[in-house]
Structures are given as structure tokens and as C-alpha cells.
């Protein structure tokens, strides 16, 4: 495994039988998996380039069991890696050889739905799509919709602050989660937020959302549900160049139009998707945009005319507007199947996730093509164009170590490029291990130390998901030490305690 992980604690490894026995007492029956063969499905998440067997897998089914497991691990100095459905693309759920993998898949119930207050209370193992399925009979849905929504879970969505094709208008997970029940590493159960709109004090719910399993384990979630719009129509627009498509994206937003979703795919991705889904995508263009407009029918009709005019000014070669709900869903089915479809044209792919200012789209796409030539690897571009969230898919063969090394270097250069043009390292996939060593590209040592101090407030022993996010995992004691330079303390006039 090319990614560096914390050294294994030999003392913990020597106590493996004792650890497994203790966990079996807390989670009896089939709740503990300890054989190599049975643990194999848990050795990686969606970032399959990196694999490592856990010390043991624990599958609790109640909040009390989660609390007891975490308390025991805290008292006995054993690391814990929380895991949802394992669809993370940043290695956020990569196990530790000396750590417990805490799988939350049994927390799969919708506990309550309140249509009057427009909230649903669900367990973290409920899939993203299942929330919408539970409320659609009453004309409601859950807005964030990652491409993996059929498999990814709400708990994992919170860990990575996941987005989706409709997040441009309706927000990411953080904008649609109202509260959660959280178990700390000490076993303490706390509640953040609730069915109300907002809460006073520090925004701890905002801190937990996107914290990648470093602060606690979510056991219940209160989400916002929305009423379906009166009308929703999708436009399929083809362009002779990716630069022209990128220019169209910028002009649509500049015109004050916020589509329900606006996605872009280049020729390589479009061809793979069309062979897989047969969505009717044009194959004689270099890039396509899918633009969805929703709201009252009259408003949609007006916006379709406006977007069509903008697309024509940008040199659009083809424009199609969905004429039925089935056709609209077919347009989106192709986009949502893009990652799987690319698997038909390459044995492996490395999915990146960076976000840039929309105005930089043409420049970044041009630079990405240059990097593709430099590393001699193909790259299929699929991304949330409306909010500048790129998902370049670098195609490689994992059986060739040189190709994997080039894919990693190619991906790192793309992420550095995102930061260079004023963007960020991740939009929704998280940092995990994939972007961990690139964090200094975006943050200073002071920034990173302050972030680690926040982790210390929740997890003083550093037992929750260590080795992720932070390139250098200082202990909480190290972060609190007084630094002495040239034999002198800083600010000597301040009283010391």
C-alpha cells in the first residue's frame, strides 16, 4: 500500500484475542467478525487502490452497543474506524490493522416522518435514496442526491458532507441535516440540533458534518425533507468544446439563474455512459451539459427559453428539452451511472474531487488535458458544473504499479491546480487518506494545528479514525506544549500557570 498509515501498536495486536472476546460480550451473536476471510469485504472503501484488513469488525445494532464499544476502546486504548456503506472515495473508511472497524449498517430504520414540520428522523445506515422513497408518496423528497445514492448511507453523507446533482440549488448535506445523536469516544451520548430550524450557541452540528468520523459516531439523524416542485424539466445541451460548455455554465449563473442541477461530461465520459445507459446523449460533441429547471410551469418555460439563448450564444450544437418525466429521469440516469459506466472502458479509475471558481472551468479543463498528456493516462471529466465541483476520473490499471503511481501524481497535480486557481481540495468526497498529504497546499501549519485542537476537544487520545485528514498527527499533548525559541518563552510578561 503506497499511502503511509500510523505505525501499528504491537501491544494492541498482542491482545487481539482479549479484544475480540470483550467485544463479543458487548455485541453478541453475529455482531463481531474476526476471521480473515469474513473481514475481507471491509479491507477498503470506494478508494480501492488502498487496502488493509482491520483488527476486527464490530456490527452494533443499538446506540447502547455503540456507546459500550466506544467506551471499552477508550478505556483500553484501542483505535476505532467508523464505517457506513463503504462508498467513500477518499479512503475515509480505510481500516487500521490495529483498530476496530465499527460498521453501522444495521442502523437502517426510518424512525419517524413529520410532513407538517417537513422532517424525517432516520438511522445512519438508511440509504440516501431510501429517505426519498419513504416520503415520495406524499410528494416530498430528500434533496442531496449523490450518484451513489442507491447505496451510500446518511451517516456516511454526514461524515463527508456529501452533495449531488441537485445540491447547486438545494445545498449539501450540511444544509439539509437539522440534528443528530452522536456517541463520543468516551461512550457519552449527546444530541445536537433537532427538528427545529436552528439552535443557539456554537454550531456543533456544522462541526460534526464533514468531520470524517474523527469526532464521534452518529446513531440518529434528523433531516429536512422538501416538497417536490410543480414542474421539473431537463435540458441536454451539446458543445464542440469543453471550454464552450464551461463558458455556458458561467453565463447561466451570471444571468441570475440557479438551476435545480447543472452537470457536465466530456466526450470520453459521454461515450462510456451512452453505451451503458442508452440515454440518447449526442456522440458528435466534445461536452454535454444537463441543466434542470424546476418550479412553477410558467417559470420553467421562461427559464428554458433563456438558457437556450445563452447556450446558442456559447455555440451549442444541439439542445434537447425533456418532454416527459421519464425522459427527464433518463437524462439523469446517464449522469448518475457515469462512474460505473467508465468501469467498462478501464480496469480501474481514480476519482478526484476538487472545487474551483466557475469562471476558471475552461482554464482548468485545458490544464487537465495537458496533465493527461504528461502522465500518459486518459481522464474522463464528470462534475457538478454549477458549483465548480470537479470529478476527473483518471483511468489506469491497478495491476501496473507504475500506472498507479502516475495516477496518484496526476490526481495530486489536479488538486494543486484547484487550489492554485482559488479553489479547494475537496467539495464533497472528504480528505481521508487521498488528500491528507496535500492539506499543507491549502492550510498553514497554524491552520492545521487549530483544526487538530478541535479534534482534541472531542477525542483527546486520538483514537477515532487516526491517520486520516491530518498529514502529521500530533498528539493532543504535543499541540498543547509551549514552544521555546532561542531559550526564551514567547510573551514572557504573561503569567504562567
From TrEMBL:
Keyword Flavoprotein: yes
All residue ranges annotated as the FAD-binding PCMH-type domain in the record: 50-228
Family matches, as Pfam families: FAD-oxidase_C, FAD_binding_4
Keyword Iron-sulfur attributed: no
InterPro entries: FAD-bd_oxidored_4_C, FAD-bd_PCMH, FAD-bd_PCMH-like_sf, FAD-bd_PCMH_sub2, FAD-linked_Oxase-like_C, FAD-linked_OxidoTrans_Type4, Oxid_FAD_bind_N, Vanillyl_alc_oxidase_C-sub2
Entry keywords, A to Z: FAD, Flavoprotein, Oxidoreductase
Cofactor annotation: FAD
GO MF annotation: an example: FAD binding
Official protein name in the record: FAD-binding oxidoreductase
Organism (species): Rhodoplanes roseus
